[in-house]
Design brief:
The chain is an all-alpha fold. Helix content is about 80%, strand content about 0%. It starts with 8 loop residues before the first helix and ends with a helix. The relative contact order is 0.14.
């Protein structure tokens, strides 16, 4: 047996964070840069989205529009599946990304003409963020075998952890000299660069991309199955869809608990003079700035130094349980001690783990699936089922506050019940993933 080829300096450097073999570094870095650009584009347009929706409709309209995204996805996901049934991989990704890029330019032109865009743009950004990111991870899943993806996805996911930070920083620095609406053109430019990277990666990796059991190549259309039928007709995919729904339902409920607690403490601090001269809005803004800073950097550290090792030594079956177990402990603490400190650190641990380990595991779960499932079913799961969690959380908040007079403790107890369901789903998915990974045919 010939000796393995030597590792390049890039391979050895990336080996500090994950198990990287000779020649695997360049593709991993290109994919990481790709997802950085995608997340940065989303973070850059978020201030534009907030400015338009709040100025034209207010917070109530924003809440209703979030539910409207789930309704639109009922049409957007089948449309994407229809395109995937007709187009090969590269043309599908090029077409979808160019569409969203052109929309940013169109919205910029309409905004300069003072056309009211608040609700429409809010709906568009929500769909853009979910569909384009899901498509990226479908592409990454298509390139790697289950064994390769398990090793290399922790590196690629660093881009997801850092892209939002980079985009937010860029937006804060650019909005002054350029103005709000010009950020749309910056986001369009980031999308165009990401598309260029996608084509470079596709050309570089085409000869060694993982081939699904159906034997389709990268030049052939993805397949003609319906996205929702693929999910509902496959036990493994349906379990993942339900897990994503409960995960986001719990997380969004937690965000409501945190927001309600912060608002109460801000009002009490201002009234008692303990807010150090800050207004209520300033108090809330400072809290969330500090909170997001700690969450983002904690998530990045976990992604860099722990995720790959957890997957390597403990495997998917254990890794998928980290977040629900953390959530179980966090909401138990909140239920018995509903103070701001408890809520803050419970949500810090939950969000940091969600953005790092859980996000990587979420992508790894699709490695042993077919190409059709990677592109179509993943779109349905990462968009509609994810957004359905937001809708259910909004419904729970409405019923709990309007009819049941729920306080923080009651919402935390409800979340505990949902977390128990989440844990059961995670155990079942871990077992099924082990079976599928064991049965997967090496490329």
């Amino acid at each position: 047996m010939p000796p393995p080829p030597p590792k390049s300096p890039l391979d050895r450097f990336l080996g500090l964070f994950a198990e990287v073999r000779a020649g695997e570094g360049p593709a991993a870095v290109l994919l990481t840069l790709n997802v950085i650009l995608l997340l940065a584009a989303y973070s850059i347009v978020k201030p534009v989205r907030e400015a338009l929706i709040l100025a034209e409709g207010g917070a109530e309209v924003k809440s209703y529009a979030a539910a409207g995204q789930a309704i639109l996805l009922l049409g957007a996901v089948p449309l994407y599946a229809a395109l995937a049934g007709r187009l090969p991989r590269r043309r599908l990704i090029n077409g979808v990304t160019l569409f969203f890029t052109a929309c940013f330019v169109l919205f910029y032109l309409l905004a300069r003409l003072h056309v009211p865009l608040g609700v429409v743009f809010f709906l568009y950004v929500g769909i853009f963020n979910l569909m384009v990111i899901a498509q990226f991870w479908s592409f990454a899943n298509d390139l790697y075998t289950p064994e390769e993806g398990k090793r290399l996805f922790p590196i690629v996911a660093v881009g997801a952890s850092s892209g939002a930070v980079i985009g937010s920083f860029a937006a804060g620095r650019l909005i002054g000299p350029l103005g709000v609406y010009q950020l749309l053109l910056v986001a369009a430019g980031a999308l165009a660069l990401s598309l260029l990277l996608t084509n470079v990666i596709d050309s570089r990796e085409r000869g060694r991309a993982a081939k699904p059991a159906a034997g389709r190549t990268a030049e052939e259309p993805i397949g003609k199955g319906d996205a929702f039928r693929l999910v509902l007709g496959n036990r493994y995919l349906l379990l993942i869809a339900l897990l994503m729904l409960f995960l986001n339902w719990v997380n969004t409920n937690g965000e409501y608990i945190l927001g309600r607690t912060v608002k109460r403490m801000a009002a009490e601090g201002v009234a008692s003079g303990a807010a150090n001269g800050l207004s209520e809005s300033d108090y809330i803004g400072k809290f969330y700035a500090d909170f997001q800073f700690v969450v983002n950097w904690t998530g990045l550290v976990v992604q860099l130094f722990f995720v790959s090792r957890i997957l390597k030594y403990l495997g998917v079956r254990v890794a998928i349980l980290f977040l629900p177990v953390i959530a179980l402990g966090g909401y138990t603490l909140i239920a018995f001690y509903p103070a701001l400190a408890a809520v803050r650190w419970a949500k810090t641990a939950e969000n940091a783990t969600d953005y790092s380990l859980q996000n990587t595991v979420r992508q790894v779960l699709f490695l042993p699936t077919t190409r059709e499932q990677k592109y179509k079913a993943k779109q349905a799961i990462d968009t509609f089922f994810w957004r359905a969690g937001d809708v259910l959380s909004a419904a729970l908040t409405f019923v709990g506050t309007t009819y049941l007079s729920f306080g923080i403790r009651q919402f935390a107890l409800v979340n505990l019940g949902f977390v128990l369901v989440w844990i059961v789903l995670a155990v079942l998915i871990g077992r099924e993933n082990g079976r599928l990974t064991k049965d997967a045919t090496p490329v």
